[in-house]
Amino acid sequence: MTWWSDDVEDDEPEFDESDVRVRPSRRGSRPRTKQRPEHADAVVGMVIGVDRGRYSVLLDENGPHERVISAARASELRRKSVVTGDRVDLVGDTTGDPGTLSRIVRIGERTTLLRRSADDTDEVERVIVANADQMLIVVAAANPEPRLRLLDRYLVAAFDAGIKPLLVITKTDLADPAEFLRNFAGLELPVFLSGEGQMPLGEIAQALVGHRTVFVGHSGVGKSTLVNALVPSAGRATGHVNLVTGRGRHTSSSTVWLRFAPETETASGWVIDTPGVRSFGLGHIDRANILRAFTDLDRVAERCPRGCTHLPDAPDCAIVEAVEAGELGETGPARLESLQRLLTTFAGTTTP
After folding, report:
1. Which of 88-97, 116-125, 197-206, 329-338 has the lowest mean pLDDT?
2. pLDDT in tens, 283-341
3. How far apart are CA 134 and CA 214, in angstroms?
4. What is 43-107's CATH number, 3.30.499.10, 2.40.50.140, 3.40.50.720, 3.40.30.10?
5. Are strands 54-59 and 43-51 parallel, antiparallel or unpaired?
6. What is the residue-averaged pLDDT of the chain?
7. Could you give phi then psi for residue 74, rounded to 5 degrees?
8. Is 190 in contact with 209 (CB distance < 8 Å)?
9. Tell me, what DSSP letter sits at residue 250?
C-alpha cells in the first residue's frame, strides 16, 4: 500500500503562467496594412515569354547590358494577370545568372491589348498579347480554304485594340486570291502575296522593322513557315493540313516574342508568334471601336440618330445617305460594305 503525505518533499519544479510557451502564429505578429512598398529600386523589363508561372523578362532592351532573366509574380499581383508584352517593374536578383529569380512587383500601363473570347457569348476575355502595334494576319489561298468570317473577326479585334492590321496570303500558287481580296477593297489593308518560290520577305521585312507585330492565323496556313523565314533562329515547328478534314495541325502552343533584325535594315523589331486558332470570339468587343477604324465614316456618323446600327436596315443612317449621295467618293460604297460586314460579324448574325 502506498501512502501520500503533504510532508513529503516534491522534487518536481513548480510552474506558473509565465513559464508557458505560446506557439507563434504562422502569419507572424506584424499588423496587416494596405500600404505597399514603393520599390524605388525596381528595374523595368518586358515580358517575352510565360511558362507555368515563370516569366522570361528582357532587361535593357538594345542596351549594352541586354539580358533575359527569370521572374515570378509578387503576391500583391496575385489578382492581376501578367502577359507577354507587358512592361513590368522587378526587384530582387536581376543579374540573370543561372538559378536566380526576380520578382515582378508592378505592371506598366498597356498601350494596346489584343484579346479574344471563347465564343461570342463569353464576356471573359483571353489576352493574347499586350503592347503590340501591328497584327499580321496569315491566310492561305487554298489548303485550307480561306475563311472570310474568321478574317473579319481578326480585323474587328485589331480595330478594337487599336492595332494596325496587315494581310499575307500564302499558297497563291494553288489558287488565285483575287476574288477573296475583293471583300476588302474598302479597307486600307496592306496585302502581301506569297507562293511557292515567291515569298516577298523583303517587303514584309520593311513593314515589320520598328514595330511589334503579332502573327495570327488559322492552323495550317503557313504562319510558322513564314516566321522561320523571317527569323531563321526561331525554329518554330511546322505542320501539315489533314487531307480529309481540311484542317491544319496546331504547331505553336504558346505566344513567343522573337527579335527581328534583318541584315538589310539598321533597325529591328519584334515578331510575336501565337498558337493557331480555329475560332475567335468577340464577346468583349466595343462596337464603337470598329467604327473609329473607319475615320471617314466615323465623322459622318456624328449625324446619325442615337442608337444607329449603321446596318442596311438602319433608318435615317447618315453614312448610308452620304454614300448614296456620292459624298464619300468612289470608295464610299466599298468602305460602307466592309464596315457593315464587320458590324454584322460582331453582332453575331454570322458564324466564322
Report:
1. 116-125
2. 777 888 889 889 899 999 999 999 999 999 999 999 999 999 999 888 899 999 999 98
3. 6
4. 2.40.50.140
5. antiparallel
6. 83
7. -65, 155
8. no
9. P
Give me the sheet containing 164-170, strands edge to edge.
191-193, 164-170, 134-140, 212-217, 269-273, 256-260
Q: How far apart are CA 161 and CA 339, in angstroms?
A: 16
Pick the CATH number of 113-273 from 3.30.70.100, 3.40.50.720, 3.50.50.60, 3.40.50.300: 3.40.50.300
* Beta carbons of 189 and 163 less than 8 angstroms apart: no
Q: Give the Cβ contact number of residue 284 at 10 Å.
A: 18
Q: Which pTM was predicted?
A: 0.77
As given in the structure block, the three cell numbers for residue 19 are: 513559464
Task: Determine how β-strand 134-140 pairs with β-strand 212-217.
Answer: parallel
Residue 136 has φ and ψ, to the nearest 5°, of -100, 110
Whether residue 72 contacts residue 112, with contact meaning beta carbons closer than 8 Å, is answered with no
Can you say whether the dihedral through the CA atoms of 279, 271, 190, 241 is positive or negative?
negative
Q: Do residues 130 and 113 touch, judged by C-beta distance below 8 A?
A: yes
Grid coordinates of 223: 504562319
Which amino acid belongs to residue 219? Answer: S
Residue from 164, 180, 269, 262 nearest 221 by CA:
180
Amino acid at site 31? P
